[in-house]
Amino acid sequence: MSHQVSNIMKKNILYSAIILFLAIFNSCDVIEGDYMIDGTTNSVDTTSVVKRVLIEDFTGHRCPNCPSAAAELEGIINTYGDRVIGIAIHPHSNFSIPNPLSSSQYTYDFRTEEGDNIDNIFQMASSGLPVGMVNRIGFDGNHQLSKDEWGEKVQTELEKEPIFKINLSSDFTTSSGNISVEVEALTDLNNSYNIVVCLTENNITEWQKDNNIDNENYNHKHVLRKMLNSTFGESIGDNFNSGDIWTKNFNVNISELENQNENYSLNTSFMGNGNCTGWIEDNIEAIAYIYDNSNYEIVQVEKIHLKNN
Fold it and tell me: Residues of 23-35 as b/e, b for ≥16 C-beta within 10 angstroms?
């Protein structure tokens, strides 16, 4: 009899522990449903090479709905950590045009030549901002995604096996330095791939239309500053055996890159005013991504801080 009571007590304790665990687990922000596909239980293997996903957020400082898309991007990044990387691209559109320098607001020009080139290919701004791409999947036809579609696409992409590993390092100190990139093929591949290396900047305090509010202290994050090897990068090859390595160093000189953006703003961009400098090196990140030349699909991405603070 005492043995049966003991077993009953153990079962009650076990059931109570399970209920408590489920209650705690279901209260965690990480599993709130917006970013998870129904029925998906596959976990991402982080013991070897981690598959990472790039979200390109097409935005503008005059776009009243764009802050909600930026918040969605941050929510996804908070959920998945460094497995998701964001780039905020301000393409040429009415939402991105700056005011003349004589104005008191919206004078900063976030546009870049590379951002406009990307938009010319993918026609994002013409579909209405905010809009984004997740690993550029679905091109061309189903690649233009609303913010509410990003989370599900990210989960699907994260479950794919990585086919490349990217190692990044930087010896940047003050104003100039080098970024070293090493790419390793993880399997045999016959497709042609390109790599793009770019710089983004966080925590840029500038004007932003947020619904009906003109916010002069808005925190702009993941802002595309410059591609180091052109808009669509360079080839890393079209025939790979598992273990093949591709390496290259990229020179970074902040003053020269600022001047290039300034010249584009002044001489090419519609109503550009040249007010696009003042980059803060401590807030800059280097991002490298590899894409399949046959369909522009991004298959791997990595980032580091430009400066090792």
Answer: eeeeeeeeeeeeb
* Alpha helical stretches, state H, the chain: 2-26, 66-80, 113-122, 147-158, 254-267
Instruction: Specify which residues 195 forms β-bridges with.
Output: 234, 290
* Cβ neighbour number for residue 128 with a 10 Å cutoff: 14
pLDDT digits (tens, 9 = 90+) for 140-184: 999 999 999 999 999 999 999 999 999 999 999 889 999 999 999
- State residue 27's pLDDT score: 32
For 209, the token pair is 């239309």
Burial of 18 (0-12, 13-18, 19+ CB in 10 A): exposed
- The beta strands (E) that lie in the chain are given as 53-58, 84-89, 131-134, 164-170, 176-185, 193-201, 204-210, 213-220, 223-227, 234-237, 245-253, 284-292, 298-305
Q: Which of 156, 268, 284 is nearest to 221 (CA)?
A: 284
Residue owning tokens 């970013």: 35
**Please, what's the largest Cα pairwise distance for the chain?**
91
Q: pLDDT tier at 309 (50, 70, 90 boundaries)?
A: low
Nearest to 163 by CA among 130, 190, 136, 131: 190
Our measurement of the distance from residue 89's CA atom to the centroid of its chain's CA atoms, rounded to an integer in Å, reads 10
pLDDT of residue 21: 35
Residue 48 banded pLDDT, cuts 50, 70, 90:
confident
